[in-house]
């Protein structure tokens, strides 16, 4: 696993060898604002899967700050909870490099878990930013988790998150405001249908269910599991499973290309030349687009 | 402005012509969780700048959902508030394309405003994800806004946000829990110093001030303005202004290269060939890394 994350030539050979064995796992993205209880919900969901003899791989994607150390703490709690079960594998991704790098590393680990035969692979992201949306949406089914009383419910699920949801979980549903949150989501769904004519990621005939959960007690988690299974069936019967696979793999190919092409350019063009271009930019003698042209020309990519 | 966002050849000529006139604006990034009152604070801040005869350009970066329409509504409120003042220019960026594309489009608009002579250019991002952090951190000074009572304060400012702050604003400081939020930030600062030996983005001798604000009444906004001016002075006296400019422009160059390189590859390799590679990936006959190699070989980048 570490081998794969380091992304060396050995890792690629391994991934190439394993790739034919992938394509069996149901890949589930989970996203939502910090503090909505995502991790607890994933734990609860995992325990229920295990009762049904399903194996679960969890990839927790968290570009965490060294200040907060959130991922580490969360993982310890989680490990204690699910420890010793060979049917569960948990991996935290906390790459602090580029966004593309994180997306790619996540895709690689998902493939490993898929090849290893896990029935469900859960990709859990922290935060509700654009990057988190991209990482989570590289899944077959996406759960968007919200919780009542987190400031403005509508605000909290902005930023393109609504469209990627296949299932909504209103977690902490034993708190005040849960019904309000459900209502707000339903209104946004109706609004979406009226204004752009679609619900969900595409006009695919799927209406994302809104499920109330209490992760700490397990309430509603069975409904969440059924909702996801129903979505998986829907993807298969409407042939959308393949189109999501296509989209997912195309995106991965694009991410690899971007990384590789830049790496090759760097091999071809001396570092001093790049530094020189940046110097000229800082001095306002050269604009960024012209600088890019010159760099590409030096690398033989005119 | 629209010309620039469309990113055609004309836009590049325009940006190249304007680039020598950039480098004068103080670029200020503003980020923080949804619902913390960022936009209201930016408005309040802008009004105070105007009293001091400073011109202000605002770039609101919001990959907004068509469901919520948040950016639109926010802009209308904002427009009403600051309308008719030629010393203020507001532009919403709601690119729904790739992350790199959004960062690049934002950088281009910032340059336009800089060249147009705005004294302060504010880049405001919604959300607290990794992409938002990247966009906001491409600034000379970064304000991280939090508000009391938004669930777990510490959770809400995870994800690498702490490190990029040059100034903290605890907004809605008239609410319960404001002192708690200040204390939590201070503890995280101390923790950061003890564990990794730095405060702020680098070990640069700057201790990010924590300022309580009430954006709706303007309370604390003058202190925010002084805090930012002090940071700008600090950057100049410690020669870090230039190093931040370097970092900002290097990042922009990299973003352009990433975009250009893929565009050039696409010109060289027929689309059908890419489709064919993806088909083989979906059929599990070809793994993503080998597919990337073949694509690069076809484009003459072995």
What does this structure look like?
The structure is a homodimer of 302-residue chains. Chain A is an alpha/beta fold and 302 residues long. Chain A contains 13 helices and 7 strands. In chain A, helix 4 (70-82) links the parallel strand 2 and strand 3. In chain A, helix 3 (38-51) crosses helix 10 and helix 5 packs across helix 11 (240-268). Chain A is globular, with a radius of gyration of 21 Å. Mean pLDDT of chain A is 81; it is low at 64-73 and 195-200. At the A-B interface, helix 2, helix 5, helix 6, helix 7 and helix 8 of A face helix 2, helix 5, helix 6, helix 7 and helix 8 of B.
- Poorly predicted runs of chain A: 64-73, 195-200
Shape of chain A: globular
Count of β-strands of chain A: 7
Task: Quickly give the structural class of chain A.
Answer: alpha/beta
Oligomerization: homodimer
User: Which series of helices and strands of chain A comes N to C?
Assistant: HHEHEHEHEHEHHEHEHHHH
Give the SSE map.
Two copies of one chain form a homodimer.
Chain A: H1 2-6, H2 9-18, E1 26-31, H3 38-51, E2 56-61, H4 70-82, E3 88-93, H5 99-115, E4 120-125, H6 130-137, E5 141-146, H7 153-156, H8 161-164, E6 167-170, H9 178-196, E7 210-212, H10 221-237, H11 240-268, H12 271-282, H13 288-298
Parallel strand pairs in A: 1-4, 1-5, 2-3, 2-4, 5-6, 6-7
Helix pairs in contact in A: 3-4, 3-10, 5-11, 12-13
């Amino acid at each position: 696993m570490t081998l794969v994350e380091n992304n060396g030539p050995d890792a690629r050979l391994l991934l190439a060898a394993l790739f034919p064995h992938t394509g069996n796992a149901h890949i589930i993205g989970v996203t939502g604002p910090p503090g909505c209880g995502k991790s607890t919900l994933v734990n609860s969901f995992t325990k229920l899967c295990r009762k049904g003899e399903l194996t679960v791989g969890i990839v927790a994607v968290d570009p965490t700050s060294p200040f907060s150390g959130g991922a580490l703490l969360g993982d310890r709690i989680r490990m204690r909870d699910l420890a010793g079960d060979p049917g569960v594998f948990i991996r935290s991704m906390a790459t602090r490099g580029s966004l593309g790098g994180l997306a790619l590393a996540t895709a690689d680990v998902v493939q490993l878990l898929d090849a290893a035969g896990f029935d469900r692979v859960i990709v859990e992201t922290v935060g509700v930013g654009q990057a988190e949306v991209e990482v989570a949406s590289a899944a077959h089914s996406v759960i968007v988790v919200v919780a009542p009383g987190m400031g403005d419910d509508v605000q909290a699920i902005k930023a393109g998150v609504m469209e990627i949801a296949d299932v909504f979980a209103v977690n902490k549903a034993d708190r005040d405001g849960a019904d309000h949150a459900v209502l707000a989501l339903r209104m946004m769904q109706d609004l979406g249908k009226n204004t752009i004519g679609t619900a969900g990621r595409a006009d695919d005939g799927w209406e994302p269910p809104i499920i109330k959960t209490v992760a700490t007690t397990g309430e509603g988690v069975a409904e969440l599991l059924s909702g996801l299974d129903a979505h998986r069936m829907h993807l298969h019967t409407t042939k959308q499973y393949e189109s999501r696979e296509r989209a997912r793999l195309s995106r991965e190919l694009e991410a690899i290309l971007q990384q590789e092409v830049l790496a090759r350019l760097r091999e071809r063009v001396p570092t001093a030349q790049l530094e020189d271009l940046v110097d000229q930019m800082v001095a306002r003698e050269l604009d960024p687009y012209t600088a890019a042209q010159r760099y590409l020309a030096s690398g033989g990519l005119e």
